[in-house]
Amino acid sequence: MTLPRPSRRLCRDSEPNSRHRDPTRLGRSVLVSFLVTFVTALAVALLLTPVCRRIAIRTGFVAIPSAKGIHREPTPVLGGVAIFFAVFFALFVAGGFSGALPKMRALGFLGGGALVFVMGVIDDRVDLSWFSKLLGQIVAAILLLASDNASGVFLTPGGLVLSLLWLVGLANAMNFLDNMDGVCSGITVVVAAVLGALALLAGQPETALLAGAVCGASLGFLRFNFFPARIFLGDGGSLFLGYSLASLGLMTTRSMDFTFALLVPVIALAYPIFDITFVSVTRVARGQSLTQGGRDHTSHRLGRLLGDARLTSVTIYAICAALGAIAVGLHQIAFPPATIVTFLAVAFAFFGFGMRLSRSAPVPKPPGTAAAGVSPSSPRRAPPIGGEDLSQSRTVRVGCRDNDFCRAQTGSLLERIAGSHPKITFEVIDLPGSGEGEHPILEALGAGVCDLHLRAVRELPIGLPEDVVLAAVTRRNDPFDVLIAGDGQLLEDLPEDAILGVESSRVAVQLKSFREDIRVQKMKGTIDRLMQHLSSGEIAAFVTAAEDVETLGWEESVVEFFHPDMVLPAAGQGCFAILGRAGDDELIEEFATHDHLVSRQVVLAERAFLRELNVKPTDPVAVHGRFEGETLVLEAMLADEISGAILRDDLDGDPSEEDELGIRLAKLFIADGARDYIASYG
């Protein structure tokens, strides 16, 4: 029995076999217009984004660092303005080259996009209610649908509901994904290119022109938004991009049958759909509000697994590109059963991916919950990590200071590096010695009591024992200091005479210059001890290093990140050191693979500054290095704790001469009278 061929119902304005029309037959003017549209949008975005950045800084359109985000500096949020006007201008130019862009459809697309964009910009400045934003998005969707931008099946009662869910849902899905540098804009570049290809293959030059404008504008903006981002999209930008992709996906269905039209754009846009679904389900399961921000998105979890923001973004781009290739292939095959099977396979693959992310990269636990290795009931000797085949493994003893926090710190770093050493079994052993600058644990390492010691660089003494080798300096994470307050108040909002707990003179003297009316109290102990003081009401807030907060997974407790202009970090803050024993060359070489050259250069320059001044990490002195292009910039602070006077200066130079740079900066401080300050340190 011969099965009937699947029907290919065409929409009212399509031609026979338009789905398979050769793009070269679209006409020279259309192809030229497509190229001009893409290049124009790209050029305008490249030129306009820096302008928007300067305007945002002057007008206060900036995102303030918080625990809900990953950025650590105030960052402009008017990137969406550059993208919107780049798309608008490119489409205006394209209209002069070809008649392939019907005014009705273009106006419907831009009108709805403008409404979503403006409401998002307003929301960036003044928080709008969820109802106002939803109503605006629905009106924008109706403007698009009313301008002949979708096939008739989507204008039936059931199809209309589906269209509204598609447009509003995807706009918010991309807004959800605007949580890591370059993710939202990069996904848009990839998916818009895919949808443009689908439009060309379907014989829809007007849709292809719109896709080219969105793709070009997003690519130009990505130049400034990729990690580390110098400007953010803002809600206006992310909602506009989400609306644009949803609109393009809907437009590509105008010459396809219903089943085909429904599933192909879903596959092309599967990643943002997966992210918003995954976040919504996991938040509901935790009893958390869907609108409450947090670092629980798929990009955040993937970033914790990969350990690199750039690699995370590129991985997500690759996933979207693969899905786009599948969507284009299905469009060409034009066989609905294959599309349905592929859709189910993609859904199943994402389900497995979500389960893996939930297990391997869980959401950090809030304060008050036991973290692995932190509970007082933790064993004195931690179980081995890694190295399942013990017959071929070398057991490496990792020396750890004898307190709960340091065991958590050691365990956290081991979890990051153990996978790179499958033939090694790690055994964590407790050793005496705690606090900054103490030598007993380093002496135990040199004497062979342990084989490795993992420690925050900022806590290391400036002069290491001769029998201890710095095998590696890990990639620098957050080098900044953070504020944790009982009532969630910023530093400027703390009441007069409030007690602020700090761990070092370095932080105390810098904060006093901003708030002379509060009582800054130095307190000994690790971050978990400071949290106990906060919970008991002894202090109103405390300041600690961001790296310590991340060790315990307490990022959600952070109220404020302090920019280096306000609180300059300690030397080496944000980096961990892997220390080995001199003579154990094989082990040192094994772990040297974790050495991050850029971070090592910065750390050596910072420590050279302290060494030349002959000061200790516990003294009121700070130094922070950063790269500006190929130049290493070193900024330092030295203070008189009694008078509150502060010396501050910076110097830049060749990163290959990191020691010399630190020494030269120290000599500048000496010339300014630093010895008089240091003499009072004792």
Description of the structure:
The protein is α/β, with parallel strands linked by helices and 682 residues long. 50% of the residues lie in helices and 12% in strands. The protein contains 22 helices and 15 strands. Helix 2 packs parallel to helix 8, helix 7 (205-225) runs antiparallel to helix 8 and helix 10 (270-286) packs across helix 13 (336-360). 49% of the residues are buried. The model is unreliable at 1-26, 66-70 and 364-391 (pLDDT under 50).
Give the gist of this structure.
By secondary structure, the protein is an alpha/beta fold. Helices cover 50% and strands 12% of the residues.
Summary keywords:
single chain; 682 residues; alpha/beta; five-stranded mixed beta sheet; disordered N terminus
The major pleated sheet works out as:
5 strands, mixed
Strand content: 5-15%
The total count of strands amounts to: 15
| Mean of all residue-level pLDDT scores | 81
Blueprint of the fold:
Layout: H1 28-59, E1 62-63, E2 75-76, H2 79-95, H3 103-125, H4 130-145, H5 157-177, H6 183-201, H7 205-225, H8 234-251, H9 258-268, H10 270-286, H11 298-306, H12 309-333, H13 336-360, E3 394-401, H14 404-417, E4 424-431, H15 440-446, E5 452-456, E6 468-473, E7 481-485, E8 499-502, H16 505-512, E9 519-522, H17 527-535, E10 541-545, H18 546-552, E11 560-562, E12 576-581, H19 585-591, H20 597-613, E13 621-628, E14 631-639, E15 646-653, H21 658-671, H22 674-678
Parallel strand pairs: 3-4, 3-5, 8-9, 8-10
Antiparallel strand pairs: 1-2, 5-12, 6-12, 7-10, 7-11, 13-14, 14-15
